[in-house]
Amino acid sequence: MTEVRPPAAPSAALWERDEELAAIVEAVDVLCADRHSPGTLLVLRGEAGLGKTALLAETRRIAEQRGCTVWSARGGETLRTVPFNVVRQLLQPALVSMLPEEAREYLGDWYGIAGPALGIADPGDGQADPQGVCEGLVAAVRRLARRDWPLVLLIDDAHWADQETLYWLAAFAERLADLSVLVVVARRPGEITGVSARHLDAVAEAAGRPVTSLSALTPEAAAGLTRATLGETADAAFCREVWAVTGGNPYETVELLAKVQDSELEPVEAHAGELRELNRSARGGGLVARLEELGIDATRFAWAAAILGDGITVGLVAQLATLGHEEAVRCAERLRGARILTVRDPASAGPDELEFVHPLIETAVYNSIPDALRRAMHGIAARIVTDSGRGAAAAARHLLEVHPDDDEELVWQLREAAREHLAVGAPDAARRCLERALEEPPRPEVHAHVLHELGSATFLTAPARTIGHLRTALGMPGLDGDRRVDAVIRLSQALLHNDQMEEAVRTVEAEAARMPAGPTRMRLQAVQFMWEGVHAGESLTPGRSERLAQLAATCTGRDNAERALLILRGFDAMMRGENAEEIVEICDRALVNGRLAPGLGWTDNEWGVELLLMLASSYAYTDRLDRAEALYSEALQAYDTAGWGGGHLVLAHAYVGLAHRRRGRLEAAENSLRESLRLAERVGRGLPLYWTATCNLVDTLLARGHVDEAWATAERHGFAPPYPSTVVLPDPRSVRGRLLLAVGRTKEGVNELEAAEKAAAARGHHHPVHVFAAADLARALATEDPARAARLAVDLRRRAERLGTDTAIGEALRVAAALETGQRAVRLAGQAVTYLESSPCQYEHAAARIEYGVLARSAPDLERGVALARSCGADGLVERARTELATGAGLP
């Protein structure tokens, strides 16, 4: 440091902060220089009292001098359970200045998704997807940032921010590269663990620069500050003791020096011994003693303010502390004079709002409240919030602190708060409310319902917890009718997501056995068949396909249970390679006038996404790609409109990519699958949806001829055994085997393809396009074991003709042609072209056309093949055909 004190420093807390101030000035300059400059993120880390808040205040001053818009927010130790609290504070200036119609216009499609989380729109009736809400908040801030450029966002005490805000902040920080905005985050080290800590770590990583760690003042700076405050007569020994007593903490130094001034203590060595006692009165027990000296009413006022945490006004505090208005005003003045409370900055709050001078003071005051009284005051605060009409969710943070007392109304309020939290996309907040409701405890007839609701709340974030809650609920009296069936199905879903496939099946099977014949039993049977249908191993129940076929034969599609069974039968028949026309006829019976029935939409919760993906995939692998594409695109649009992110959006993009791949639009497929994989990284590796995105991307890259990139993708994303326990389309073992052959690891590739064939046969999966291992295996064995290759080709042809699609027969003929020579090879290749020309799969048509051109020595066919391959984005096929044309090998 070249200077002990920065010139023209507006705050004592900015002493020895030259480097930090320089970084802030530079960041503001970059922001203001170019509307298209990349965003900047600064993270200030330091223990309490080291000047983080002062640096943020100085950032505001510097930015506003440069004409920037500045929004700020602050986390609170007692407010961490309030979802979206900090992001709401942050956007308050923009939201307050907008009319509802203006906000709707700016937020566009995201209004209904992000609006409820921000408190500017009513939530819907269902459960909002947290990932979708997060994406909506990111989009909202991005749009507002473009409107209000140059924009600076300041977040103080981020370690106390609510989990939902930190989730948003981590996602927003990742997108700063293409948005010109300055974000400055201040936090303490440590303080939090778990999910919130991971979010904060992600924010620091996104900064792209080292975190600024604030240090304590040096003895020289403490001496300079002492003399600037008390006068140049302060001697060296006194100044040195100020530093020793406070440890160089700027806040404690300022407070201590204020105490010295109040006590009119002469700053000389003779009085240095009194500094420690003065310092004790400014913190912890000393602060509490000083508060008590102000009188019981002022103490009650301070306690009430600490209970409220935010939105502190004299009127609200008077209600909570049971003080008259005039007495409350006098208490507020005394507390401001004692530097315990201060007027909050009107730029980030209402003009009459108060706040504690420092979080250390607020914490000390809150902790000084006797435990029983603190809980009682939270109960009164909850009633005040509820009576004001702000709803159960707003009162929830107080309800969580009330002492359990067998209060039926409290249980109802907490359940209502949980419903409100779920509706805005805050399942973790809902979980806390329901767990607290169980402590009350609920009445016996209500207990199972609370557990059911708790299981639903934890479903997206903790499937293992959901399993425990729902099992307990189902073992208690109270859950009957549709709610019991819903709980059983939700339990089976949680077991499935927790990779407990067999238990998932047995759970619904046992419940179905308890039911009389009718729609409810049929619904449970459909769910059982569905889970068995997505299981990648051998059938859990012998004779499953036969029983499913028999049951579906009785279904006309009159209700959704019957429609579900028809979809499941169609998917099972497709996977088994049965006749495509019959498969399509079965699937069509599950529709109503060619559309999904009400209650079976992509965002309906009763059946889940798996069922509709089975329907669309049955069309995709029976050459009805127009219907499959319509369904996949409908899913993507539905999830975008509803703001459903996470796994739903991952699968939607993956299956849109699959449709592009089947159609032969390889470039579009790659783009969709890369987006799917990007989203899947956030949801979590190793899940079936992650496999779906990775498998399809590797398959698409191989089709494009980008072998090295396909291998790198597989290595980077763990596309290797062990494989998931659920079905992935296309078959991952087949794709892995094809990849190994492509990179020259022939023996390993053959082994993988043989394993794929064996696993498919054990499951009864004989679809020759979904499980294409036999085709690649026949080609790989053509030289080494021609007899076996020929047998594989014959079996493949038989399976293809059983299925009866142009794509399957054409692909089988391509394999047969590759194993032959002379005119027989030419004839078979020509037949393959004929079939694939009628197929919707243009990549396979291009490959067949090029192969025929080579065998028949036909330049026109090669040229046409090149045109087709180029339109598909199949660079490898184009290169092969160009080589043949350039060399003229065998061409007339």
How would you describe this protein?
Residues 16-184 form the Orc1-like AAA ATPase domain. There is one protein chain. With 892 residues, the chain is mainly alpha-helical. Helices cover 65% and strands 4% of the residues. The strands form two sheets. A five-stranded parallel beta sheet has the order 2-3-4-1-5, sandwiched between helices. Strand 3 (151-156), helix 7 and strand 4 form a beta-alpha-beta unit. It has five domains: 17-213, Rossmann fold (3-Layer(aba) Sandwich), CATH 3.40.50; 219-283; 481-623; 627-811, Serine Threonine Protein Phosphatase 5, Tetratricopeptide repeat (Alpha Horseshoe), CATH 1.25.40; 812-891. The protein contains 44 helices and seven strands.
What layout of secondary structure does this protein have?
Elements: H1 18-33, E1 40-45, H2 52-65, E2 69-74, H3 85-96, H4 100-107, H5 111-118, H6 130-147, E3 151-156, H7 163-174, E4 181-187, H8 194-206, E5 212-213, H9 219-230, H10 236-246, H11 250-263, H12 275-280, H13 284-293, H14 296-308, H15 314-321, H16 325-337, E6 341-343, E7 354-356, H17 359-368, H18 371-387, H19 392-399, H20 408-423, H21 427-439, H22 444-458, H23 463-474, H24 481-497, H25 501-514, H26 519-533, H27 544-553, H28 560-575, H29 580-589, H30 609-620, H31 625-642, H32 646-663, H33 666-683, H34 688-704, H35 707-716, H36 732-742, H37 746-763, H38 773-780, H39 786-803, H40 806-818, H41 822-837, H42 842-855, H43 859-872, H44 875-887
Parallel strand pairs: 1-4, 1-5, 2-3, 3-4
Antiparallel strand pairs: 6-7
Pfam families: AAA_16
Domain Orc1-like AAA ATPase: 16-184
Keywords: ATP-binding, Nucleotide-binding
